[in-house]
Amino acid sequence: MLGRINSAAASAAGKIRSTSVGNLGARMISQLAEPREPQVVTSEIPGPASTSALEKLSKIQDTRAAAFVADYEKSVGNYIVDADGNQLLDLYCQIASIPVGYNNEAILQAARSDQMATALANRPALGVFPSADWAQLLEESLMRVKPAGLDMVFTSAHGSDANELAYKAAFMHYARTRRGDKMFSAAELSSVMDNQPPGAPEVAILSFAASFHGRTFGALSTTRSKALHKLDIPAFPWPRAPFPQLRYPLDKYSEENAKEEQRCLEETERILRTNAVPVAAIIVEPVQSEGGDRHASPEFFRGLR
């Protein structure tokens, strides 16, 4: 999230608008209404305006993955509008990054606040110099929806980054439990600079078949959804366990599905016991989305724990 916000802030800083124009734009956006249905006005997508914009952009940025150019000032709710005026129903919320819809009024109001402006303009290193109101902001936001039993929060820029931080925390916890109260040894301090044990221990994160956990370097080693995400990128030799492939309707295949989940649990247990290096943590999605909308039962996840 912060990465997107900072990009927006940089864009805004590059072209400063007058207050009157900014207020006019805010009023226009606030008057947007979600369409009743999609509307396509060009014979093909991308249309001529998107194609022209992409050709210009391609001179300074790789645009091979771009579907079209969006008009975010006109996009609203679940509908994204492209540069040609096509109104398209966005079933994916971009990449699940806009879960409350385009130009959500509550988000816009927060974005216009002095508090948001100060945060964007100063972009604090929160771990070193947290703002005076940071604890209050966390209490009124993330801590209100925290899972039971979790009392601490560590903010990050995006999903892959959050997983990277979780992996590092798991590795440090694993090493600390083995080291105890001892200080770092001379061998650890020396070997880690060469990416060698004992300073850089040989431990792993276990993930599941068809899972997606991001495309940053460490997270990519736990992503198993598409080969295209991983090709040509060096990877950690971390293990993969099977994720249950349930049959539907669930009530008709309850016995078969229970056996499938038990098979996956037993294989996961085998990997944990026999993997070449210790497994410091397991990462699993409650619902595999990119992996194909694949679910598992609460019993499976309790068994996994």
Termini gap: 30 Å
Helix percentage range? 40-55%
The tally of beta strands, per DSSP, is: 7
Mean pLDDT: 89
What best-fitting shape do the alpha-carbon axes yield?
globular
Give me the strand/helix succession. HHHEEHHHHHHEHHEHEEEH
User: Please, what is the oligomeric state?
Assistant: single chain
Q: Quick one: biggest sheet?
A: 3 strands, parallel
How large is the count of helical segments? Answer: 13
Major sheet: order of its strands? 4-3-5
The parts where pLDDT drops under 50 for at least 5 residues are 1-21
- What is Rg? 24 Å
Summing up helix and strand content along with how strands pair, one would put the structural category as mainly alpha
| Beta-strand proportion | 5-15%
Detailed description of the structure:
- The model is unreliable at 1-21 (pLDDT under 50).
- The protein is 41% helix and 7% strand.
- A 3-stranded parallel β-sheet has the order 4-3-5. A two-stranded antiparallel sheet has the order 1-2. The chain has a two-stranded antiparallel ribbon with strand order 6-7.
- The longest helix has 21 residues, at 159-179.
- The radius of gyration is 24 Å and the shape is globular.
- The chain starts with a helix and ends with a helix.
- It is built from 13 helices and 7 strands.
What's this model, at a glance?
By secondary structure, the protein is mainly alpha-helical. It contains 13 helices and seven strands.
